[in-house]
Amino acid sequence: MRPSGRKTDQMRKVSFERNFSKHAEGSCLVKFGDTHVLCTASVEEKPPAWLRNTGKGWVTAEYGMLPRATGDRMKREAAAGKQGGRTQEIQRLIGRSLRAVVDLKELGERQITLDCDVIQADGGTRTASITGAWIALYDCLKWMEGRNMLKVERVLKDHVAAISCGIFANQSVLDLDYLEDSSAETDANFVMTGAGGIVEIQGTAEGAPFTDEEFASLMALAKGGIAELVAMQKQAIAE
Predict the structure, then answer these.
(1) Longest alpha-carbon distance in the chain
(2) Closest to 17 measured CA to CA, from 2, 38, 34
(3) Of 47, 80, 125, 181, which has fewest CB within 10 angstroms of its CB?
């Protein structure tokens, strides 16, 4: 039995609240159970310096956790004068994941920045960030389309979503919360497109190495979970 009482293939309750931020071109408050992340999308009418005069745009991301997103207060990274390695790794993952479904040529010489700020953490902050950031990006592109800046269907090629899986208490489970993540024998994050393409897989054995069969079981759980998330994204943007 999982600590939450969920079935092995059952995700936490997932919700998307679009247009959460008054000022951002696109925004979404995403909740994976008790993990809550505010994702905002901001557009700039110029690309990074290294992309100027190429006709291409760029999509990037920044990630952070509020001091009381966790049980004990964390110091702000700004106070330390630099970002931690975990923060840099996660924001690069978010950026790669969103770029995988964007036609940068069709975006034109612009940059869209996805800011993912964790309000409350209970495991899976990076997967929630990626999944919610897609909706913020979609709404940002719709905002641009409404101003005759581009066509969404030409820029955004597919959905992208992410989910965690792991081996907890000798069984493969979907969407780990903190209790499971902190004591899992194996944990992995899967990022996939709506069409089923693999963007990235991050998997780690915390104890004994995992087998091909165990990895296959995690992959099967991830595919099912991401299919559910993509269906939820489609429903959210149709509302």
Answers:
(1) 57
(2) 38
(3) 80
Cα distance from N-terminal residue to C-terminal residue, the chain: 36
The CATH number assigned to the domain holding 226 equals 3.30.230.70
- Residue ranges of the annotated binding site for phosphate are 86, 124-126
Annotated binding site: 86, 124-126
What order of strands is seen across the sheet that includes strand 186-193?
A: 171-174, 160-168, 186-193, 198-205
Helices 85-99 and 125-145: crossing angle in degrees, nearest 10, is 40
The one-letter amino acid code at 196 reads G
- Given the DSSP bridges, would you call strands 14-18 and 26-32 parallel, antiparallel or unpaired? antiparallel
Which residue reads 């970002």 in tokens?
83
In the chain, which stretches have pLDDT less than 70? none
Cα distance between residue 231 and residue 174, in whole Å:
17
pLDDT in tens, 12-45: 999 999 999 999 999 999 999 999 999 999 999 9
Nearest to 202 by CA among 121, 92, 116: 92
- Give the containing element (helix H, strand E) for 63: strand 58-65
| Sequence-distant contacts of 203-206: CB under 8 A, at least 24 apart | none
Q: Which domain holds residue 141?
A: 14-238
Q: Is residue 4, in this structure, part of any structural domain at all?
A: no
Domain count, the chain: 1
Long-range contacts of 84-88 (CB under 8 A, 24+ apart): 87/63
